[in-house]
Amino acid sequence: MEFGSRRTYTTMPSKLRSSRLLLISLLLLLFYSTTLLRRPTTPNILSPPPCDLFSGRWVYTPETPKPLYDETCPFHRNAWNCLKNKRENMEVINSWRWVPDGCGLSRIDPTRFLGRMRNKNIGFVGDSLNENLVVSLLCILRVADPSAVKWKKKKAWRGAYFPKFNVTVAYHRSVLLAKYNREANEDGVKGAYRVDVDVPADEWINVTSFYHVLIFNSGHWWGYDKFPKETPLVFYRKGKPIHPPLDIIQGFEVVLQHMVSYIQRQVPAKTLKFWRLQSPRHFYGGDWNQNGSCLLDKPLAKDQLDLWFDPRNNGVNKEARRINQIIKSELQNTESEIKLLDLTHLSEYRADAHPAIWLGKQDAVAIWGQDCMHWCLPGVPDTWVDILAELILSNSKTE
Ligand SMILES: *[C@@H]1O[C@H](CO)[C@@H](O)[C@H](O)[C@H]1NC(C)=O
Ligand SMILES: *[C@@H]1O[C@H](CO)[C@@H](O)[C@H](O)[C@H]1NC(C)=O
Ligand SMILES: *[C@@H]1O[C@H](CO)[C@@H](O)[C@H](O)[C@H]1NC(C)=O
Hints:
Elements: H1 4-10, H2 19-44, E1 56-60, H3 90-93, E2 96-100, H4 110-116, E3 121-126, H5 128-141, E4 149-150, E5 158-162, E6 167-173, E7 178-184, E8 190-200, H6 202-205, E9 213-216, E10 233-237, E11 240-241, H7 248-266, E12 272-276, H8 305-309, H9 319-331, E13 338-341, H10 344-348, H11 364-368, H12 380-395
Parallel strand pairs: 3-6, 3-9, 8-10, 9-12, 12-13
Antiparallel strand pairs: 1-2, 4-5, 5-6, 7-8, 10-11
Bound molecules: 2-acetamido-2-deoxy-beta-D-glucopyranose (NAG) (3 copies).
One 2-acetamido-2-deoxy-beta-D-glucopyranose is lined by residues 290-291.
């Protein structure tokens, strides 16, 4: 930068006090300050990652290309197949584009992605919010290999094999990550759930070496909705009940410690590991069992997010940030090894993109309430896929 001439003018002897000179120096100042301001922003706009893909904003872009798949994808789960279920507003939902601050996020190129993943396998372990992400990924990758077939080996709950690339992508359902079983009381009536905090669930304990990339999550089941006080979780370590007994959140912390330590010990170091943070819910006007709804026609504004999600405001959707805090503190010392996939903030905006009342089944809403928790497909999880694909590729060595 050249500051010399500006300095010369502003330090001119005041005796001269010529108004023309003053005008010239002001113009020069203006010139320099605008060039200075312009400089840093232009080159960054399209610079590739690494950059923070998790912070940014949604921009309404109707001219954005259509989603890569539709309701005919064979890997759909019915309740999330919003095109088939004739959800209103699907075109609008898919016209919003996530624009990270300071860099571009391009849509996944399924052929390039599968090409880079040739002879590799990608595994997901966790609850249905991880499954929501997998379904999107399967439908997107199928564009590059229509011969993809369902794959459910090795205790996978859902998955596909892509023969053209010899790639397997699968989801292992394990909502608490740790092993748990319902116990029978002495009278044979089913009662509490025993959770072995130090034992990974059967669904994934012996399969991690098959995968080259693993994405874990857990969080949505750690509440009294799923495990009411009459049939609580009871925590065991080394086969013995933990004393004094842990409440559900303390149990979550202890399970996380053990699962993270298991992953660090047992999963090969060369495996690329991610931990995906919570997917926020958007129940408005009441919780899921109190007629809470999400019939919104556009994303939330930035200044509405704290009102919805900050635990201090005690709204019905506060748990996502609270649970994220616990996960982040358990993972903070492993960050180099297990990468955080922080999809929470970008998803917080999208109150408009859940299946809501379009669940594809009669009476589903009357029985279960609206679904303001999972996401329509195509929809927001396709953006999760773009981000995940970017991170997988930028963290994989080219061979
Ligand atoms: C397919 O990939 C697996 C690794 O995931 C590898 O062991 C196997 O040899 C590959 N098969 C072919 C035909 O390349
Ligand atoms: C996992 O592998 C170990 C060691 O081979 C074996 O003892 C155990 O039964 C296996 N567990 C499951 C659930 O397959
Ligand atoms: C939910 O709505 C139904 C029908 O409008 C009503 O009968 C019921 O009392 C409501 N439930 C709650 C918890 O507000």
